Amino acid sequence: MDPKFWLERWENGETGWHRDEVHTELETHWRKLELPEKSRVLVPLCGASPDMAWLAAQGHEVIGVELSRLAVETFLKRHRVYHVAMEELGFRTYHGGRYQLWCGDFFATPADLLASISAVYDRASLVALPPDLRERYARFLADHLVPGTPMLLISLSYDQSEMKGPPFSVPPAEVERLFASSFDIAVLNHASALDETMRKRGLSALDEHTYLLRRKPIAGAGA
Ligand SMILES: C[S@@+](CC[C@H](N)C(=O)[O-])C[C@H]1O[C@@H](n2cnc3c(N)ncnc32)[C@H](O)[C@@H]1O
């Protein structure tokens, strides 16, 4: 997907996916990851999500990666994060409080940074990507996360003929196909997420699944 698509969405204020409230699935299920307070949490394609502020409030260090500078700066402003900005490894990075926000292409995130991650939170990130990039996203995470790393994934599914994405429909069978070879997968919740906005976009049903994924041990590694 052309980065221009997303940059223009931010510039034109067409950010219908953005919520001002913390996602209830995050609040409900996060403790199941059993993370120590200071764990480093990766939020891929983070936008200006207030879920990052919730994660920071749990004592975590939040690593957000986002294409749009406007999104990152909006988050920092809204949450009054005193920060310094610099150019690092092809990204513009923002460091402040419990946040490190990396502005650039997620698929260029430095391997060292990914290897230091204790957990991943994905809401509206996998489903923002078209099929070929979803494959790449799942492979990229599998290639870089340390075995044992948990990931809370909130995904959407609907009849793709009723609406053009994003968000794209990523049903359970696809989550299985994308992740099962490298991650253990547990479904934590399944509920309807159909609201007026999505009804107006043509959907007759919209399902939200919350998963707990965990990077499997790498075959052949270890003693
Ligand atoms: C649907 S929004 C979801 C944002 C956030 N996860 C939330 O819940 O509000 C998808 C975001 O991914 C960003 N994005 C898309 N492709 C990206 C990429 N390759 N690297 C980094 N960010 C990307 C977009 O700019 C947009 O802010």
Description:
β1 (40-44), α3 and β2 (61-66) form a beta-alpha-beta unit. This protein has a single domain, classed as Rossmann fold (3-Layer(aba) Sandwich), CATH 3.40.50.150. Strands 3-4-5-2-1-6-7-9-8 form a nine-stranded mixed sheet, sandwiched between helices. The relative contact order is 0.14. It is built from eight helices and nine strands. With 223 residues, the protein is an alpha/beta fold. The protein binds S-adenosylmethionine (SAM). S-adenosylmethionine binds next to β2.
What's the SSE blueprint?
Layout: H1 3-11, H2 24-29, E1 40-44, H3 51-57, E2 61-66, H4 69-78, E3 84-88, E4 91-96, E5 99-103, H5 111-115, E6 119-123, H6 131-144, E7 150-157, H7 172-179, E8 183-192, H8 196-200, E9 207-215
Parallel strand pairs: 1-2, 1-6, 2-5, 6-7
Antiparallel strand pairs: 3-4, 4-5, 7-9, 8-9
The protein binds S-adenosylmethionine.
S-adenosylmethionine binds at residues 6, 17-18, 45-47, 49, 65-68, 71, 105-107, 123-125, 128, 166.
